[in-house]
User: Fold these one by one.
Assistant:
Number 1:
Amino acid sequence: MQRSSNGRVFRPSCGRSCAARGPQGWPRHSSSFEVRDVLREPQGGGDIREMVETGRVAAPEAAPPVIETAGWPIALRRWFVAALNLATIVGLAAGVTLILSGDGIDALEAVILAGFALATPWTVLGFWNAVIGLVLLHGPADPAASVYPFFEAGPAGRPARLASRTAIVMTLRNEAPEPSFERLEAMRRSLAKTGLADHFRFFILSDTDDAEIGQREEAAFEGFTAIFAPGHEPVYRRRRDNAGYKAGNIAAFLADEGAAYDYFLPLDSDSVMAGDVIVRMVAAMERHPRLGILQSLVVGMPANSGFARIFQFGMRHGMRSFTMGAAWWNADCGPYWGHNAVIRTAAFRAHCKLPNLPGRPPLGGPVLSHDQLEAAYMRRAGYEVRVIPVETRSYETNPPTLPDFAKRDLRWCQGNMQYWRFLFTPGLAPLSRFQILQAILMYMAPPAWLAMTIAACAKAVTGTFDARYVELGLGLFAVIFFLSISPKLAGALDVVLTRGAVRSYGGPLRFAVSTLVEILMSMLMAPVVAVYVTIFLAGLPFGRSVTWSGQNRDVLGVGWGSAIRAMWPQTLFGGVMAVTLFAAAPLALVWSLPFVAGLLVAIPFTVVTAMPVLGRVLSRAGLFAVPEESALPMVLKDLVPATARRWRRPVAGEAVRNAYAAPVPIRIDADIGSR
């Protein structure tokens, strides 16, 4: 095997042009391998100032028809949602102002008002998305016609044939490769059952710079390749120059290979999708040439980790109504989450190249949070970006511990803070511009809430705290907290109203207990998140950053020392606040208890939720279960350990009675495996 000084490509040998084509138009290859240089220029290769000056790009040349939806026109939907949100925000702001302005508004009260104005819009938008989504899911209208007519979930949506070729692209970096290749093998088997596997080819794009992990990747790839028929083998590409990070790796791949494929489907290393879902999405892209990006609704797989079970339980049912409501008015300007989506290759290559930002990292250099901008650029080019707002068979894993969750969250935060430079990029759709601003404000809200809390504490310490602040604290907290958990409440109501759904979550008792405990856990986590995001943002202008490297997706357990190092700022801040308020204004401490409690227990919360024993206990009890634990899809059959669903399938002789065997009726035809 040859070696390259810059990078490696393992693939069946062919000429540079791959002109000779085999069945279905694939390049015809022999069974030998070659290694090619995959060194590329930095991501985008251009300066943002130059791109801003050039501005607009052309719409699709053939100007295919837009996707028609039933019900209200899209413009009317957007004005309606804007009116709902503005009226709610103005009403809440008026209430806060009325409470604070009894004898004029001083500087600290102005901070409270400013923080409220900055933090509230994101919460209010989530509330209305959830309400609209719940009405669509259980009201008289048909969301399949008014929200996602481009995707057919029933038997009619399963294509008998395809006329295109799709590259399935998984990106890797410094992670244990064996689980990723197991997921790819599960997808390969699932695709084979559709009878349309010849229209797809797997590509593994590695940015791994750890030599030992790189060798394991190559060994896993060799085993994966041996399964394929000649002419359809997967391709492994590994770069040594990680310019542009994940987006740069995909850009280099598209520059070399993209012309041979109509679509590509990016996967993270923890992604899994059923073959039936993939071919339906590709068929939708073929039917609707204006579709540039088709994003699936990604949900978490059954997990061993107690933290992951709790987190993804709330996300699972909360996302359905939220995503449905957002898709109703986002329509052709929907989200792209960077993976588990089908993308039109030629349009992406022509219009979605990202610039290198001027200045040094972390705010300059390559764009980290590339997906939102790529969606905005695709929409600017005249293509539609749509999300399928119903559960299919599209999965990922969630971080197993709070520190891993925080690391991922801060990486997204760092990337979103680069968006300031794109707010005034010429040619963007107004909604795309709003979504970019929304992505920024999502991480400005935690510091805003923290500033409000500090200002209220200062009022207490200076002796100016009175009953008005109790009224503000308790009444306003109740309203805001209700708004913030409304997607989860709407999701829980959706489960209750959907026939058979409660059984798929473990039955009424398990579901009710899990829902209440998850809301409590969310309350404890919220101030922890606010503190670490605020500290990180404060350090960002001074070069503080999160390293782009491998993620922990499976390892459980956080030691007390690690938890103390990670959570001492939260504990210190909470302790100082509690002592100060107790000494100066005990009544104010009562008001702040929901906030202070989460900070004070941050260290034990981190340790306990990461304990393997907690995951075992929750799994055995069937708490925080997701529907796949009741009816395991075939694509997950070899990926989900029995220990993640002990209540449904006892392991090692454990006797667990399952009284809730009936699965929820899924919204797409799919094969169901072990029950």
Number 2:
Amino acid sequence: MGAARARTRRLSRRPAASVADAARGGASVAHHRLRHLRQPDELRRPDLHSELGGVRRPDRPPGAGDLPSGLRTGDRREPRAHGRRPHRTDLARHRIAQAPAARGRAVRGRPVDQPLVSGTVLLLRRLVRRPARAAVRPRRGGRATRPRVGGEPHPRLCARRVPARGHAVATRGPAPPGLVRGRVRARARPAEPHVAAGQARAHGIVRDVAVGCLPDCGVRRVQTERRDPESHGLGGHPPRDGRCRACAGRRKPTVTPRVHTDPERRARPPPTGTPAGRRPGMNRSVRFDDIRALLVCHVDNAGISRVKVLPHRKLLSASTHGVTISNSAGVLFSVDDHLNATRDVDPVVGDLRGIADTSSMAMLDREARLAWAPADLFSLDGTPHPTCQRTALRRVVDDAEDARLTFLVGFELECTVFRPSPVEGEPPVPATTGPAYSTRALLEVEAFAFAALEALDVAGVPVDQMHPEFGTGQLEFAFAPRDPLAAVDDLALARVVLTRVAQRHGLMVSFAPVPIAGGSTNGCHVHLSARRDGRNVFADPKAKLGVTPLGANMIAGILDRLEEGVALLGGSVLSFARLRPHAWAGADICWGPGNREAAIRFVPGQAGMGAEQSNIEVKPTDGAANPYLAVAAIIAAALDGVARGATPPKPVHVDPSTLTAAQRRSAGIRPLPADLGSALHRLESSEFYRGVFGDVLIDAYVATRQHEWEAYGEHVPEDVADLVRWRY
């Protein structure tokens, strides 16, 4: 007020007429020149002359005066026009109203009665044209972003700098809904990213969050949080140590942790490398720019892949907010979509969040711009849900790392390919006629087989080999060993890829344990290797068993837990129809080098290559299992054997079914449970697996599989095979 009064006294010393003439002349000529400037359409204000000339617009409230709303002569605050943050033109009009010519001072040698024209127009030109330049090239040291006109993001211009991470700019106006002073809440983002704002903002590298300045301050700050550690060169500078003008002379604001008031916002942070997901171990990456739609998938307790699809504009939220998944779709559906219930998980009330792991994102089809990502199940409070199978595997792998053990997992995925029957109305028939493992069988499905290899390569799934199998229409894909979580992700992805390729070639593919009753069965054998201090524990040529003592402990642990855990390795009524002698399915609890009828086949590798190739193969696993639970159960049993110092029985070098009952007892050979009902009973009463997975997950899994046993346990395999052939 003191400064305003001083300027008023200086103006009063001159004749009123000369002062008014100077003001009117400067404003009029400024407006005349302004009309010829090349301005964006959004910045052309037809009412500029009326405001500069002191004429009140009809739509303005009485008493508004001839200055923009919210301004007084000498007011040093940022002007506020009609309840919004001022644009640069508002600042220009404010400065014109306080021009030196109007205050009776000489400027650049001009007499005081000469209107100030060139300086005003130069000021306007600099202020008005700057947004157009910023839309093309960001200002040095800052990042071009969407300006705000009327409180909303401007659709065409980029004018305002946003400082780098940890810095803030003060803006006025009410805090966004849900803001708690001193806490952070993500600000609503526009539906479409602004392309001219730069690749950083368009692809989720940064996000804006509203932060309270001080506990009693009404000014909020827009803080930019950076997501990509590789983009460091786009920073700005903080104004006044991150505080607003009103609080600049006060104590520094206290730093408080980021806590979301909305439970749905408290999701797991995205993995490193988001949004450009990279397939672990592969020289391939997926950029959000290349994706039209993202399939967010999880495998439920029935072994079925469930999906939610995100369009391109929602990709940034895939790894933070994820997708909504009902309890039923998450963990309670059976193979026939029967809805089950447990004591801890309600099938009707409650939701889960499926958070996509974009570090494992893969491209399904580059032409269609379709991508895939596995999902973890989270509660609404942001914590992993007890029924999340992928999280259960991650916990077991962490336990192995604590024991200084590193596991690698590889799968042999068997599937049966069908083609339409030549007889109209008849069911599909196998796509090959044999012979087993023959070149002729491969040539019958040559187009599909090589298209599948190419599609798997595009998706980043490493295939070691592919060949026709024993049964008609049967193929096997052997995947390279990976860390357990990546290996299971590859398996889930490979099944999606093979299904898509088969449909494009007019074929159908089945991963069911028994696709054709009385024919060959499909397994999903798990190859497991482990290292401690860089040494393969399943390779010791000098040892009697061919493995180290640590490897022997692991084999013993898996054998000891097979009887109570086999329901996790298959879990379908057909899984136990597959576990029969002479099917190479591992129906007997024993182990031996190269023994394909034993539950655990020891693979010693080539001479001199044992350290790189030696592993064990767990054969009872099939395509009806949840692969995350199956691998977690195997590794947990191996770790249990190490912890107990378990000793394995003697290896079996013959087909166990050829031995007498006495020989089987002497060798410690036991049969696996005969049916799904018996296996589920053993799993439900297993203290070991309840300790590994928790009661909530075990109860949900047993309830899901128990329905299948009760509904189809008494049916003949042909009927069950017809029901579930295309389910997995």
Number 3:
Amino acid sequence: MTQELAETANFLLRHGMSDPRGGRFGEAIVARYQRFGGSALVSEKGWYFPDRREIVLGDGLTYPVRTFLGPRLPTLALNDPRVYSIRERNPYSVWLAAALWLAAGDPDTALSGEVARLRDRPFENAALSYLIARYERALLAFAAGELENALRDLRELIRVRAAFREEFDRRLTPEERINESELRFWPNALTHFNDLSNLVDQLLAECERRIRLQKRKTRPPQTIAPQSARIAAKIVALDQAHSSVHVWPLSSPMRESGRVQDLIAEGEAALEPLLQAMETDTRLTITLAGKSSHRMGRSAIPVREAILEAIKGILGVEELPQTNRQIDLNKVRALWERSRGLSHPERWFAILQDDSASFEQWKEAIERLMEAQTIDRTLPLMEQLFRPPPTPATPRWAEKVRNRQNPSLTELMVRRMQEMEANPERRDHFRSFNLQTVIKLADWDPERALPSLQHQTRRFFSLPPESVGWSGHDLALATSARARLGDREALSEWVTWMRNAGPRFSLVFGRELLPMSDHATDPVMKSAAETFFAEPDGLFCASAMALGRIRFLKDVFLSPLITLEPLQRSFLTAIQDRRVVGSVLRVVGDRYRVELKEPRETRWDPMLAGDLPDLIQVGERSPVRVGDLVAEGLKQLRNAPRFHLGWTEARKDAALAEYETYLREAIPRVAKNPPPN
């Protein structure tokens, strides 16, 4: 291992890594580029050269020193985690630090700590860490507008890459010399390097292009009068598109850019120029991807993505037509031609009418039309999220096309949902979406929605509980909607399914039981409530009291379900239940482990400082009873007594007695004014 690390250090020193020999190891204040532009002063450890006032840091690069803070003890932890870098800290950068220490003449530090335990190909990891560090410094300099500094690092990478490529290739194992198609799935160091090399070429070409254009004077696009010339100028200016809002992959940061918003404001007149630019533009923006789009390095977001976001904003769609998973610009043009001049709701209706549209396009059109609040997708994402919804929360966009007939909007949506269901490869993907859609239709167009509502709920009733999962709440809402529309058979079907599912399913969020409170006076529901909350096999049976579920007991208590007398009795019975269902072990001073028998679960939790006097001793176990778990689930209720699973059994008994008194007072009070569904 020492010999291989020495070979690594010598190779890196010959091919660009800064030489730490002769430097004084210490800490200094240096300027580092920041992810959102500019630079900041940070403290870093490395080898300081006072005559040059430079320091070699743990990334193998040299930086000017602002202030030397003094010598420090040798350590492998050279990269300061407080530095806000473009990438997460590379877990293999320890090999680069080890190579630097060995080059500096300190093998003891080089082979200490993590390196003494690792056996994971030091050359590949150290070399890639160094190359990534130099590339990312160039990338951050580019984003900060310091093109000459970026070019210096990029040209150094170009100078040495042939030697690195040859060395990576020489070190490939026989197993790694596999065909190119498999390399995409089982990448080795050489494929990582080749991908990084492509990013270097792209960034170098962009830096050189920008330097050539620096002396040119351009007018602000907004001051250009003819719309066609103004649009062309705005497209040219997209290489300056910048956004510091990174919500990847929820939304592209390019949508937040003011330059993209300016193009969206031009309307459909900008579509054809944008589509033409989409075909030919190879430039990069100054916005850096918030998440790696590449195995070993970050990259600047291409101008094409800004163009794409402008096209989506003008058309009012996120799902554009594709061919072989690539956006098909000819199909985008065809979509625009078919819906030219239409409002966004009318365009979404036209997409639903289009038999050639994809499932994803139909799904998005339905989602947009049935949005419960008016969301302007052309607005920045943060404004979309925090703009208050209108009152009442009805599908405003659907109202714009309510009068369309032959087919109506409801008929179109039901037809498309049936086609999604008919596809054997995608039916499970759209199952929850279809159920949520018919629930909204039940409020918006109840007469036409009932048959589809019946079909979707019966489809779910035919599934085992584990396949329903998080859709249990939607199934409860759909059942209540059917009953509200006069189909009382829905309640019997739901009760039968819930009895088969068992109490463990019902306590995911508690909302799965809402049909009981929505239709509490129905004889079917009265009978079901008596059975479902019966002890010892009801809501609080041992198998239902999973650690992940008890935290939702508070939600059940503060729901309309509390109006049901069987549930009220269940809470009082359960808080008195002393059946042992597990144990709690105090492991160290502020840590304990909770173990349940059925289902078998373990949870680690910290102790609360205020509870320390009543805790069990380190190494001591205390039984966990049903009542303990109920109190643990309810302890966040307002004015609830204090409780902790790590208390002694006697202390927990006293707390449970307080809880019984508390519940006898709180249940009638909450049931008198229950929260709405």
